[in-house]
Amino acid sequence: MYFLNRLQIGSLLNAARTSALSFQRAFESSRISRTKMSSTGLPHFSVGKIVKGFGRGSKELGIPTANFPTEVVQNLPPEIGTGIYYGWASVDRGDVHKMVMSIGWNPFFQNTQKSMETHIIHKYPGDLYGLELRVVILGFLRPEADFTSIEDLIAEIKGDIENAKKCLDEPEMAAYKTHTFFTDPASNTLG
């Protein structure tokens, strides 16, 4: 049998706390690195007219979304699974802004139709229905999740927005803001 005195126990606990904190920081750093362009199928470029969604983004959540039509959603490559993504977006070839996008069925609302809901991190003066939406999806933030309350869902989305902003500030991601997909009038695809 081996016995430890208080000093030894304290030293072990401090070492464990330091190791846990170091592990957490290393995990967070590697998680962000892993979620960037390493995701299969990324970057992905999509373009389509903005359609009316489920009407929850602005009304229930206070987080407006621009939604792609069904045909754009159906043309997603199979490598891009459901979840929360980040990238850049432009409406009607205007300024390019950071965005966060939900791809999937939104378990909290139990959707039966898969959707691509883009929250553009910019305030627009009115509805965007019928305007052209261009996005480049650059990275994966997290899988879809169900929540116990609307408040928990809103808090998670706000966290996603902050994480997306940080990721898009990195030079590798920021470079896509001026991609020809957004700037070349003849560009309809990656081209």
Automatic annotation (TrEMBL):
Pathway(s): Cofactor biosynthesis; FMN biosynthesis; FMN from riboflavin (ATP route): step 1/1
Pfam families: Flavokinase
InterPro entries: Riboflavin_kinase, Riboflavin_kinase_bac/euk, Riboflavin_kinase_dom_sf
Domain Riboflavin kinase: start-end pairs: 39-169
Annotated keywords: ATP-binding, Flavoprotein, FMN, Kinase, Nucleotide-binding, Transferase
Gene Ontology MF, one: kinase activity
Gene3D superfamilies: Riboflavin kinase-like
Enzyme Commission identifier(s): 2.7.1.26
Keyword Kinase: yes
Organism superkingdom: Eukaryota
Protein's recorded name: riboflavin kinase
